[in-house]
């Protein structure tokens, strides 16, 4: 029997009015893999995330999550999105613990009264990202790296199988980046599928099993050691091959 893919994207085109953001995209993401998503500003990375999240309906084509239509997969909390820190309203008066508890909403009844199991999973999730000591801190009072870890904890509390991370290493120090990479590798061992958009090319080649190069269409997709070439980097970045990219 063929292996069930975590995410299947078939011939997807996304238009914003008359602007084409994605064109003819075909991708299959395997369970238990870390996939780097590499492209210039405006190349369609966020649009791809939003399409996988079901926030944008493709103009053409189809997306399935673990064999399910997106709406059903979302209802079951299969996919979690860890946003770029800039996209969040940090003045919102909630604690770190409250943010992580949001990951449990899909499991609670409409009154959203946390059960002991929800509290335990929130604690475990905070512990895994080393944020338990800061659980009562207001979210706006965290450093960039701590904010990222809080959202990662929310995704863990949601018990999502598929994690979409938008620029997780922006504004993060080397130690936090290493901690996050270690955690992502641990999640991969447990069968999670992790799609990471990043400008940090040196880290892509060290921890991503596969890499996608994107510019409206998929320019290359495959095992990182095969596709992480000067040619693909140059095609992706319009003739410019960024330095320090650990090219094979
Ligand atoms: N809501 C929108 N309406 C119209 N055009 C949009 C909209 N959102 C994105 N676009 C356009 O679609 C294209 C892809 O944008 P997208 O945000 O997916 O790129 P990106 O790769 O995530 O960029 P970045 O690295 O800067 O975050 C861009 O040309 C962008 O201007």
UniProtKB/TrEMBL annotation:
- What Gene3D superfamilies would the database entry show? P-loop containing nucleotide triphosphate hydrolases
Family the UniProt entry places it in: Belongs to the ABC transporter superfamily.
Q: Pfam family example for this protein?
A: ABC_tran
Q: Kindly provide the name given to this protein in its UniProt entry.
A: Manganese transport system ATP-binding protein mntA
Q: Which SUPFAM superfamilies match?
A: P-loop containing nucleoside triphosphate hydrolases (SSF52540)
SMART domains listed in its UniProt record: AAA
Keywords attached to this Swiss-Prot or TrEMBL record, sorted alphabetically, are:
ATP-binding, Nucleotide-binding, Transport
Q: State the taxonomy lineage.
A: Bacteria, Bacillati, Cyanobacteriota, Cyanophyceae, Gloeomargaritales
The protein's matches in CDD domains, at most eight in alphabetical order, are given as: ABC_Metallic_Cations (cd03235)
- Coiled coil start-end: none
Domain ABC transporter as annotated: residue spans: 7-241
Gene Ontology MF term list: ATP binding; ATP hydrolysis activity
């Amino acid at each position: 029997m063929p292996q069930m893919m975590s995410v299947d994207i078939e011939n997807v085109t996304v238009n914003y009015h008359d602007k084409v953001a994605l064109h003819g995209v075909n991708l299959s993401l395997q369970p238990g893999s870390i996939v780097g998503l590499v492209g210039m500003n405006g190349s369609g990375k966020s649009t791809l995330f939003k399409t996988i999240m079901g926030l944008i309906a493709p103009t053409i084509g189809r997306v399935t999550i673990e064999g399910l239509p997106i709406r059903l997969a979302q209802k079951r909390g299969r996919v979690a999105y860890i946003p770029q820190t800039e996209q969040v309203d940090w003045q919102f008066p909630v604690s770190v613990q409250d943010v992580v508890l949001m990951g449990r909403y899909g499991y609670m009844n409409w009154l959203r009264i946390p059960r002991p199991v929800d509290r335990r999973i929130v604690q475990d999730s905070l512990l895994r990202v080393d944020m338990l000591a800061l659980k009562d801190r207001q979210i706006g009072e965290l450093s960039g790296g701590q904010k990222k870890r809080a959202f990662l904890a929310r995704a863990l509390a949601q018990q999502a199988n598929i994690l979409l991370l938008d620029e997780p290493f922006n504004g993060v120090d080397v130690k936090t980046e290493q901690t996050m990479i270690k955690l992502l590798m641990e999640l991969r061992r447990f069968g999670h599928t992790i799609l990471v958009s990043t400008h940090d090319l040196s880290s892509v080649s060290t921890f991503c099993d596969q890499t996608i190069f994107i510019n409206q269409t998929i320019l290359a997709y495959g095992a990182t050691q095969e596709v992480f070439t000067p040619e693909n980097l140059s095609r992706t970045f319009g003739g410019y091959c960024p330095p320090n990219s650990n090219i094979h």
